[in-house]
Structures are given as structure tokens and as C-alpha cells.
Design goal:
alpha+beta; 12 helices; 7 strands; three-stranded antiparallel beta sheet; 57% helix
């Protein structure tokens, strides 16, 4: 049953996915968990600098112009560690810091796609502003009165924090129905003509023509067999590269209207049906 915290996203494959926004309670709990981890990291870094001869007592009453190289290096290290912790984990770990992973939430783009590097960087560059304003209650006020519980960093980067979701049966059925519908449209008028001796096949579907050689045919088959087990970044790269190779040899309006993965699915469906049409 949908609630006010549910958002629906229509993917490029025309599959509807539902996400639930993470509440302020779970976000605060994740922040506290990350803060504990960061505190331990700061203690470790501080200990290393103390072993190198830095004294924290030297910070008292000093202006920035009197900082030693070691003290300046310490401050830069702490700043980079704090920013890099959130940025790197959210970028390489599917939008999740350890704290977010513990609470079952993640950062995503507002359209439901994984947050990219620029979005992760921007939302965390502005984190310090959000923390300063949080001391005056402004950040909480902004999150409460934005429709998707977004802080300033989220608004600027176009991101939201959602509960980590697992695929449910409705998602699988919707994706399967859409894939079958695309395949049926492609196969319905498909006529296959073999040209050459094992060198390549040209698939014609009304106005659509797909020229696929043996190497690409094998790549398509291997991708379809393994795509669900591929890491998201690897899958995205393979889809983009394989679709580009098909488009370069098979231009046309019908082909350009398909997304990269739809194009690969169509080529695969025609390929496995070609023996019935030769």
C-alpha cells in the first residue's frame, strides 16, 4: 500500500519502480553510526601525527599564519578524511556509507538511478553547510518542509535518500512483460537472411535492420546469460559498448528509438528465433 513517503519512478525501460523515502530518524541514526566510525579514524590519524611530533596544545591561541607544516598537514588530512569518507562510500558502494548500509538506506538520484560521481561529490561538499545550519535547526526545518526530506546538499545535487529495496515479484513481472512485448514486436515482422558463410547475419524487421557478426552474436548471448550477476557499473559499460557496436552498423530511426538494453534484448530475441525463419 502506497504512503506519502513512497515515490514511483519510470525507468528508461518503461518499468515502474517504487521507492520509500528514508525518514529523518533512520538518517540521523546512520549519521551517528558514521560519526562513530569517523571518530575512530580521527583518533587513529591523530595518534600518528602525535607520534610524528605534533602537539595539540600548540593549537591553542595560534593563528593560521603560525601553523607549522605538520599542523597544516594534519588539518588538511582531517578535512579530506571527513569529506572523502562520505564521498567515496556513496560513490563506490551503491550510495551507502557503512552507517547507511547498517540502517538499510542509500543515496540515489531523484529519478531512482544510482547517484553518479558528481552528485556524490556535490552533496558532500555542501555537507559542512548543512552541519553548520543544523546547529541552528535550519537543516531540520528544510528537510521537514521539502517533499522528499532533502537537505541543501540533496537539493543542489538532485539526490534523495531512500530505503534500500529488494526486487519484489511485481518488479520481475513488469520487467518480463515489457521485455516480452518489445520482443514480440521485433519478432512479429522479422525476416532473417543469411549472407556469407558464417561471417555475419542481417536481421530485417520491417524498417529495422540489425547487422550482427559472429563475435557480436556471442557477446550478446553471454551478456544475456550473465547480466543479472554482473556488478551494476560493469553491466552499464557492457550494455553501452555492445549497443554502440550494433548501432554503428545498423543505423535507422526504429533502432534509435530503443534504449541500449532494449536493442540488445531485441537482437537476442530475433537471434534465438532465426532458425525458425531461415
Amino acid at each position: 500500500m502506497a504512503t506519502f513517503d513512497d515515490i514511483a519512478v519510470l525507468t528508461s525501460e518503461n518499468v515502474r519502480l517504487n521507492y520509500t523515502l528514508a525518514g529523518m530518524g533512520s538518517r540521523f541514526a546512520a549519521f551517528m553510526a558514521d560519526s562513530v566510525i569517523l571518530t575512530l579514524l580521527f583518533v587513529a590519524v591523530s595518534s600518528l601525527f602525535m607520534l610524528a611530533g605534533m602537539s595539540f596544545a600548540a593549537f591553542e591561541g595560534m593563528g593560521i599564519e603560525t601553523f607549522s607544516i605538520l599542523q597544516a598537514l594534519y588539518m588538511v588530512t582531517v578535512a579530506v578524511l571527513y569529506w572523502g569518507y562520505y564521498f567515496l562510500f556513496e560513490w563506490i558502494n551503491w550510495g551507502q556509507t557503512p552507517g547507511k548500509q547498517l540502517l538499510g538506506i542509500r543515496v540515489s538520484a531523484a529519478d531512482g538511478a544510482p547517484a553518479d560521481m558528481v552528485q556524490c561529490a556535490l552533496r558532500n561538499v555542501l555537507r559542512i553547510i548543512d552541519l553548520i545550519l543544523a546547529g541552528f535547526g535550519v537543516t531540520f526545518f528544510i528537510m521537514i518542509f521539502t517533499p522528499r526530506y532533502q537537505r541543501i546538499g540533496d537539493l543542489a545535487a538532485g539526490t534523495v535518500v531512500v530505503k534500500r529495496r529488494r526486487l519484489v515479484i511485481d518488479d520481475v513481472l513488469n520487467a518480463a512483460r515489457h521485455s516480452d512485448r518489445i520482443a514480440a514486436q521485433a519478432v512479429q515482422a522479422a525476416t532473417v537472411t543469411v549472407r556469407g558463410s558464417g561471417r555475419g547475419v542481417e536481421f530485417s524487421e520491417g524498417p529495422m535492420k540489425l547487422k550482427i557478426d559472429d563475435a557480436e552474436r556471442m557477446l550478446i548471448q553471454k551478456f544475456i546469460e550473465r547480466r543479472e550477476s554482473l556488478p551494476p557499473n560493469v553491466r552499464k559499460t557492457l550494455v553501452k559498448d555492445l549497443a554502440r557496436r550494433i548501432r554503428e552498423k545498423s543505423p535507422g530511426e526504429a533502432i534509435s528509438s530503443l534504449s541500449d538494453e532494449q536493442l540488445i534484448d531485441t537482437a537476442y530475441k530475433i537471434e534465438i528465433n532465426k532458425d525458425q525463419r531461415i
